[in-house]
Structure prediction request, 800 residues.
Amino acid sequence: MEDMLFYDRLQFAFTITFHYIFPQLTMGLSLLVVYYKWRYLRSNIEKYNNAAKFLMKIFAINFTMGVVTGIPMEFQFGTNWAKFSELTGGIIGQTLAMEGMFSFFLESSFLALFIFGEKLMGQKLHFLTGFLVFLGSWASGWFILATNAWMQHPVGHEILENGTYVLANFSELFTNPWLLPAFLHNQMASVVTSSFVVASIGAFYVLRNKQTEYGRLFLKTGVIFGLISSVLVAFPTGDWNAKNVAKHQPAAFAAMEGIFETEEAGAEIVLIGQPNMVDKKLDNKIAVPNILSFLTYQEWDKQVPGMDQFKEEELPDNIPALYYSYHIMVGLGTVFIGVMALALFFLWRKNLHKMKPLLWFIMFLVPFPYIANLTGWYTAELGRQPYLVYGLLKTSEGVSPTVSSGNTLFTLLGFVALYMLLGLLFLVLVGKTIHQGPTPQKH
Amino acid sequence: MEIVWYIIIGVVLAMFFVLDGYDFGTGIIHLFYAKKEKDKEVIAKSAGLFWDSNEVWLVAAGGMLFMAFPTFYASVFSGFYLPLIIVLWLIIFRAIGLEFRGQFNYQMWKDIWDKSFGVSSLLLALFFGIALGNIVRGVNLGIVDTGVSTQEPHYFFLPLWDSSFSPLSDHPGVIDWFTLIIGFIAVVTLAIHGANWVILKTNSSINKKLKGVIFKLNIVLTALTVFSLVVWQIVNPNSLNNFIDKPFLMVFPVIYLTGLIGLFFIKKIKKDVHAFALSTMLILGGITSSLASMFPVILPSVNDTNPSLTIYNTAASEYGLSVAMYWGVIGIILIIIYMIIQKRLMAGKVDKMDYGH
Ligand code: HDD
Ligand code: HEM
Ligand code: HEM
Prediction:
């Protein structure tokens, strides 16, 4: 039983991590495609149209990967988490089915039209198809986050005697106080990823002295969108999420922030430190007093409950991983704001394209927004432990009763092997597309 | 409400098999009949342009099943764990085969992805047929051993096969001779359907030949159909009761038969669309007849201890099912609109269409 839970969790964590590499780029990138297409409509400068179509090519490769890795996600609820599906399907089935009906159909139909139909449709309609792709991918994020919000903060349901969760109020699923902050934060984070990717392609072209016209365009767009979204990710959306966690999941909050002992007169904010689970304290701590109380409650000396206030079985089961994930996300977010602000300064002085070291830095920064996004999700998911539905259903009660750990291990290994291959193909194709660049191909 | 959702999900699933069915079939045709590079390319294209918008029907069907019949979803997905995960892997292989073949112009690269597309299409068709076979045959619900359930009554787990290889064993596996026959039927049906699609959407040089292929496959299909009807009676002696009680259900087998008979005249049919419509009828008729013969059961139990799963004992709450109707109707209308727009813009033969480069 223990083993089985472990492999199921490992498999879910692996497949969702791999899946989420792709949608975070597509959601953000579709916004940039719409932006370029809009600039083209207004100015009629061919450059913008080529840039839009180029980004849509990268989008399309990502989209395919998102689709093929997303289908296993949906199936896994039934295969590996059958008990959870049986009990809560009447609720999260609603939001997941709506995602399928409204967003995937929208996205995939209009993506095909955007790519193949420019000549047939004319520019205004072409813009519209791009916009609908954007709408579809953001709606997808909305419904997925509504699903996750219910797991983090269940609302609008009733629990029957046999343990089944039935829907009592449909609209509460979408007015869930967890949903809007999580959605806005997550979408901004995906704009961060796409801006950094675009800026990095720009830096690459400028450094290589090829496609420099597009290089500069991408740098400019990437830096401007990158700075705006990096700021929005931290404030107000990140802050808003943190307040939500403090309010609705206080045990998770204590673990995220690394507060082992409650302080009477206001909590300090930990900048650096390593959780020591044996002595229940942070080693090598650097902290600033009272800031956390202020950030959370706007009162310098308000008490923030520490982990000592909770029973062992209410605390997340992997506190160090949770603590590190959270601090990596926040730390990277701070670095992003700094880098992009610096780049914007040089952009404004019109010499960003000459700042070789900064361009190299931007180019190699690409993995980090992905890491920030993934560690953000680890924070949310590890913080929810030991519950699958917060406060109500334990993770250990959600697994499939008849699937043995050997089977899960076998399929996990299969997914690892297959995804390695997919990842390799993906890199080759994106590399090829970037290499070819946005200038129109001659047939 | 349960019945309404049963019908909606049935229709969405049938749409999936009709639409993705032609691109599975295209893969089978590609594997066996496409020899020249030019043909290989257009045939792959005739599937490649459409597969992802077809596959969304699978996602939609999965989501709706989850929402409307959560107990069934949980039971079937965990019980058929291994074959389902294998199906997922095959879907991935197929998709990357289609998407990546045209990306580089090396013969070996293309050959690899062609095979990946063809073989996984073939196996998927086989697996989908086997799945249908399992659903009509039933499973050992509650994993009953000598009269005692070892699990809750709606859970089970099937190995890929069982040493007896027989549908009549107490612990049937996923693959036995009965489900295998249904699997072959699915492969032949989808191959016919795919061949019709290739004829309809491309100017490949094998179009003429494919008509002959369809004719021959149709003979095989007729033989398999008759044979399966006989063994069906052995596996599930009650399978005709519904048709006797409610004679109007006979329209479904009649749809199937019309398709089957019509396709014998394939060489005389002038309009390719008509031939495609006939193979569509085969698929629709086949699926609806199987569902109608079982109704309201959706997964029969092969033991006497635990009852079969029906749409009534696996459904979500009444309230949930009724709110979902509101967005469901809006969703379906939107989907139909998207489909019309897309089909109009992508009408005609695909040979000249630009794909992915
Ligand atoms: C580029 C990515 C990125 C960056 C720089 C940040 N985040 Fe974040 N964060 C995410 C990407 C992300 C995410 C992946 O999008 C999450 C996971 C769940 C969600 O809705 O968004 C998330 C969740 C998330 C949560 C919810 C955790 C839970 O549900 O238990 C909090 C409290 C924060 N973030 C706070 C912050 C703060 C204060 C940041 C300050 C800089 C910050 N995040 C930067
Ligand atoms: C709608 C969105 C999501 C839902 C419904 C969801 C649901 C789940 C479920 C059912 C589990 C398994 C049980 C558990 O260990 O808690 C899980 C675990 C996990 N999920 Fe999510 N997840 C979502 C999004 C994500 C994303 C986007 C990521 C990361 C990229 C993620 C990362 C993880 C990880 C790392 C685990 C393992 C946690 C552990 O082992 O303790 N999840 N999630
Ligand atoms: C456990 C959670 C998740 C499940 C079950 C899931 C399911 C799926 C499925 C089935 C697809 C393929 C859809 C198609 O056929 O077009 C997909 C793609 C997609 N998913 Fe996920 N997903 C999960 C997590 C997430 C998260 C957390 C997000 C973002 C917030 C997300 C955003 C998307 C997007 C935007 C697509 C469209 C394809 C793309 O743009 O790459 N998914 N997902």
